[in-house]
Every structure is written in structure tokens, then in C-alpha cells.
Amino acid sequence: MRPKIGLALGGGGARGWTQIGILEALTSYGIVPDIVCGTSIGALVGAAFVTGKLPALKAKMESFSRRDVAAMLDLRLSSGGLIEGRRIESFLEDLGISGDIESLSVRFGAVATELRSGREIWFQTGSIVRAVRASISIPGVLSPAKYEDDGWLVDGGVVNPVPVSLARAMGADIVIAVRVNTSSMKPQVVRGDAPATSASPPPALAIPQWLSSAVNPILGHVLHAAPEYPSYFEVLSNSLDIMEDRITRMRLAGDPPDVLLRPGLMDLTWLDFHRAKELIAAGRACAEEAKPILMEVCQVGQKA
Predict the structure, then answer these.
(1) pTM of this prediction?
(2) Would residue 40 show up in a list of annotated catalytic residues for this protein?
């Protein structure tokens, strides 16, 4: 009997578009996951894959411009973030990502974090839009998602940036994980039975000038730094990156995947949503380098 293959897609903002290239490469090798789990942007990419909308997401993002990135931002601090959830939900629905998770032919799970208790929430049933919306609620950037009667959910990366544990809990025999919340000059592939090298924390991120000048004046004022101080955005984004990097190391050390893919991201940051072509190419290059290991571990072409 063929082993069940699980894919754990990690969070990392725009760097998550590398996972589009990785998924395209995996399917071209005959490696089709039975289980797809995602955190944050990984949940969005995973949702596009399991609903058959990955080509639509790729086409959309390859035409995404700096202006489109700026248009997603709207100052709504009263709702707990810079971006309102309705824009994200509309984005998903326009792509055709919709329906209930339990109706999918490929099992899907998404991770979010309960804001008050810090509990890790696993979405395995119900609306896939709701699951993705909750999983990508980056604290301070995207407003939290409503949960049950009086709860709120934020980004799953706060507790589980690369959801290997969820993939295993859902029955995966083999887990391929993708980590994009760290910097790497070249693709890296780690077998589950080999020691993982320490990952470099993401580089310090300053708000791009094009973005701060393209948004509305009030938000532009928030994004800019006062003399001798880092900006609000620099403090928030770099703090989240450091936190997520440390949590990822601990989680993967305790529950390593069978194969860990780390695309070469060079100078690509989690804000570079308009550089999808480069990011997708980086993901495909990583998968191509890992192809011999992936084919062996996933027993592709071998007798069951």
C-alpha cells in the first residue's frame, strides 16, 4: 500500500509564493500529496492547490504590481490591523477558492492561534475561506478573525509556523515540509534522518519607499520612522520574524519532517508580493535540487 504523503506549507508572507513552484514541481514528478496542511501564506497556497485553483493563483500573482500591494492596505487600527479581512476574503473568492474542507478530494488543514489563550487551532472542517482567513491574520497587520462566541484568531505562525505536527496527526506517513520564514542564499534540502543546520534569521526589514509613498497619507505616516527610531512596521515585522524563526527551530527539532525544503530567497522579503515570478522560480529550483531525495523518500516509481 502506498504511503500517505503529507505536505506542510509554512508561513512567511510573500516568500510563500515559492510554494507554488514547489507544488508544480512535485506534481510533475508524480508526487501528489494526500494531505496538505498550511500556516499563514502556506494555508492560502495549500487551499488554492486542494481546490484546483493553483493556476489561477499563480496567474493572479504573476501580474500583481506594487500598486496592487498598496491597494490591499487600508488603515483600520480600530479593527486590530492595517488590512481588513473583507479584502482577503474577496481575494480568495475571486480566485474561486471556496466551499467546505470536508468536501475536498485532498485532505486539508490550516493552523490558527486563539488570541486570548494561545491555543493552537486546527481547521479540518467547515469553510475553507474562513480557515485561510484565520490562519493568515498576521498580528498588527491583518485584523483578527472572529472565533466562536467571543474569541479571536490570529496567524498560525505564532504557535506552529511549519505544521508538520498537523500533517502527521491527519495520517501522513511521509511529510514534506517547506520553510520560507528564513533567509537562505541557495536552496537547502534536509532529510529527516540528518541533522538540520541552524537557519539564519531573516534580515532586518525596512519599509520599502515605494510602499510608504503609495499608501494613503495616514498609513504612510505610521509606516515612516521618526528620527533615530525604527518605524512601527520595522519593529513589528522584524519582531515577528525573530519570534517565528525561533519557534520554527524548536518545533522542527521536536517533530522533524522526512524532507525539509528551504528555497533560496536571496534578497526576497515577505513584502515582495509583486515579485511572484522570481519567488515561484526559486521554489521550483529548490524542488528540482531535491528531486532525487523526494523521489526516494516518497517511493515514486517503486512497487508498493
Answers:
(1) 0.86
(2) yes
